[in-house]
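WARN no homologs supplied; continuing
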Amino acid sequence: MENALERFYRVCDALERGEIRVAEKKDGKWVVNTEIKEVILDGFKYGKMTDMSSGCFSFFDKDTIPARKFGPDDGIRIVPGGSTVRRGAHIEKSVIIMPPSYVNIGAYVDSGTMIDSHALVGSCAQVGKNVHLSAASQLGGVLEPVGAMPVIIEDNVFIGGNCGIYEGTVVKENAVIGTGVIINSSTAIFDAVNGCFIKADENGVMTVPENAVVVAGSRPFAKGAGKEYGIQLYTPVIVKYRDGKTDRSVNLEELLRG
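OK structure emitted
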């Protein structure tokens, strides 16, 4: 029987090739592969601290989880300037990574996606095809608890600059997340089109609907001192659902992917 480290290396190899994933869509629903998360955690548990310094820069981390290395045949553009893809992350062909960016272990980034400068793809985050993760935006990492949903970004999503998508949020296909929007499981999204709030489900998963266009907004306190002083609470707002005009506004993507 293979030991924990042998299993970890085998699973990391399969993750990097895209043969297995931390989360998969089955019958229209995203499902977490808890066993894979458990194996990833073993890599941290049994790894030993080692000196990974390079040139004038000092780095110290577990020897089980070094940075990945790529070659021209991988078909990935990694622009010079300090980006890192960690062991156990899958990067599909035609992905563009602008500097400096970071893709953590267990993450999956599908074809045609651009990861812009100062962007983070956190541990186990799943990113679909033709996504743009704009500058300084973050997809939070979710390793523990092992049953928790990682952040999911489905195909053709546009995420504006300085956004934060956290706590296992699922952003459905073709959604547009405007600049500076923060989405997590504890802050309800107001759907101004349908006149209702969208809250996390019974498992704590927040879902941004397909084609939703989300901007940063606010709502007033309903009572107490907050109301008296006119204090507002941050609230993401769906102002519309994607249409032809929205599509034209994100056509910049085609220019960037050449």
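The chain is about 15% helix and 30% strand.
OK
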